[in-house]
Write a structure and sequence with these properties.
Residues 75-84 have a biased composition (Basic and acidic residues). Residues 52-84 are annotated as: Disordered. By secondary structure, this protein is α+β, with helices and mostly antiparallel strands. The protein folds into 3 domains: 13-141, no CATH class; 147-286, no CATH class; 289-363, no CATH class. The chain is built from 8 helices and 9 strands. A hairpin with a 5-residue loop joins strand 6 and strand 7. The protein is rod-shaped, with a radius of gyration of 48 Å.
Length: 364
Amino acid sequence: MNSAKSWRSVPRRRVWVIAAVVAMLVVAGGATAIAVTVSANNAAAERAEEAAAAKKAEQEEEAAAERLAQAQDEASDKQREGEALHTVSQAYANEEDRLSLRNALDVLAVLVNPRGGGAATADDLEAATGAVAKAIAAVGQPPSPVKLVCGNLEAGVDFAVRTVPLRPDGSGEYADLWASQLRCDTGMTGDPVPETAAVQSPLQKAAVAAAMAAGYGENHKVDAEILYAVYEGCGAAGAGSYYGDTAAMSDAQAKEVAAYLTLCPDHPDAPKWRAAIGAGKQALEAEANGTRVAPGGTYPIPSQVATGTFVAENVENCYWETRDGNGDILDNNFVIAAPRVVAEVGAGAVVFTTEGACGYWTRR
């Protein structure tokens, strides 16, 4: 028999010890493998987190840069808009609103073009841009065009809606209407138009005040309606003008035309209107001192009619007479038609009567 012992002959306790050692070695090896695997996984996760954080930071940086660029563009656009409006608004906006816009623009200008190399943040630019936008809204936009209904049936021009552009001060650009010798009347067409015009500029306010003095407030409820009526008066010209053929204006007519001349002093009929206003004033003065007698009536002498030679022109069915203190007729005449009639008002006359289509009597 071999002297070497078979493993079977090893004592059972020793076999258990050996098996335990082997098992421990196997477990330890497995644990080590697991630990290596976990460590590798942790490192990969950390690298992934670092990569994600870096990507997020990059995205945030790109978003911030994009927001800043957009804020800079919007600030520049709003700056140009505000500067243009500040210039044009001098003709219509109040000074307090324009000053607020100026201050907001000055703040924005520093941020858009920073001094000393400093860069404005998106928050700063957005806040300053918003302030300018608010100031722009307070100043408002220039007067909008008005729509008038104008035409001249005698000249073969149908009434139609015509748009009149307005300058920043509120005066209209009527060149086309004036050239066509049109008359403006919203009642001459079925096309509805807003018969109002916003009152913004000092010129428009002055026109409304002049129209109010002419009695426009009796037929119009609000200033916007009054202003629109003045635009209508300004739109008519020449043969279509309301006072195109008036040689002398009454006080009421003169006040109405004064409103037109306030809003459209360059009207083509302006020289004729001013002459007629002047002639009307002279006529009123002449009536006051008795050297001009209105048609139709009996007037005392010399308080309302001066003595002397009076002339009426282009008469039809015209009768006149003078009477003394006893009521007796001193002189009279009836003319069916004549280019010129003469009436003598003597020193003994106490009243002068005129009837029919004599027109005005003027002392020569």
